[in-house]
């Protein structure tokens, strides 16, 4: 009986492993298409994927990883879609937020939520353009976006203030990660430029001195 049970377990294990291998590719492809569709939506349509970066930040004593999908339009940098999340009333709230080069919010989409349908789940539409809590076209800035109950300018979802706060927290953190990446890129480029200029000046100075000696 033991040998029979072991044999059955081995057969089932092999079948599960085979099924996993068969479905792994299609599942990954589907996830990639959904992500690309989401990026196109939050970036307002016509754009091309350029590169993907990750930014790690310490928030509330924990390390958060933000995935930043950089895009271009007509061959020029157009902004990025940032994967962000926070803890909402019903559990994790995962989002994709699109920003242009200046940090203005272009759009957003909810990737995952466990909030109550009809209440917290309204976040998928509540903050869209033209809706009551519209955040499209706004720049979170250093102070971030907040609900009117906290002294901010954004109307919270009716009877779902906790979800609204979690939503805006995720947006603000996405903005912070995106702008820090842009700042790092700018800072990282500046020293290189200065180094090149310095070498050019040294080279020119050396050449001038050499000419003087010849004279």
Question: What would your notes on this structure say?
Answer:
The chain has 215 residues and is of the alpha+beta class. It is 46% helix and 24% strand. It contains three helices and five strands; from the N terminus they run αβββββαα. A five-stranded antiparallel beta sheet has the order 1-2-3-4-5, sandwiched between helices. The longest helix has 54 residues, at 161-214. The chain is globular, with a radius of gyration of 25 Å.
Which helices and strands occur, and which strands form pairs?
Layout: H1 2-42, E1 48-59, E2 62-73, E3 76-87, E4 92-99, E5 105-112, H2 123-126, H3 161-214
Antiparallel strand pairs: 1-2, 2-3, 3-4, 4-5
First-to-last CA distance = 103 Å
Q: What does the overall shape look like?
A: globular
Assembly form of the protein: single chain
How many helices?
3
Helix-strand pattern: HEEEEEHH
Poorly predicted residue ranges: 189-215
Secondary structure: helix percent: 40-55%
Radius of gyration: 25 Å
Q: Report mean pLDDT, rounded to a whole number.
A: 83
What's this, in brief?
The protein has 215 residues and is α+β, with helices and mostly antiparallel strands. 46% of the residues lie in helices and 24% in strands. It contains 3 helices and 5 strands.
């Amino acid at each position: 009986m033991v040998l029979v049970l072991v044999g059955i377990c081995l057969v089932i294990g092999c079948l599960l492993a085979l099924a996993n291998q068969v479905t792994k590719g299609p599942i990954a492809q589907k996830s990639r298409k959904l992500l690309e569709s989401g990026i196109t939506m939050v970036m307002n349509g016509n754009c091309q994927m350029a590169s993907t970066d990750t930014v790690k930040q310490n928030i509330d004593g924990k390390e958060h990883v933000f995935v930043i999908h950089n895009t271009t339009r007509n061959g020029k940098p157009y902004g990025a879609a940032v994967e962000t999340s926070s803890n909402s009333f019903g559990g994790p709230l995962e989002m994709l937020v699109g920003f242009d080069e200046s940090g203005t919010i272009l759009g957003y989409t909810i990737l995952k939520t466990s909030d109550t349908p009809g209440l917290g789940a309204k976040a998928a539409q509540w903050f869209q353009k033209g809706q009551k809590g519209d955040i499209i076209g706004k720049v979170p800035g250093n102070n971030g976006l907040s609900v009117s109950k906290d002294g901010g300018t954004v109307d919270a979802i009716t009877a779902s203030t906790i979800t609204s706060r979690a939503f805006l927290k995720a947006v603000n953190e996405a903005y912070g990660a995106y702008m820090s990446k842009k700042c790092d890129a700018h800072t990282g480029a500046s020293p290189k430029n200065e180094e090149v200029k310095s070498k050019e000046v040294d080279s020119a100075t050396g050449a001038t001195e050499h000419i003087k000696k010849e004279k």
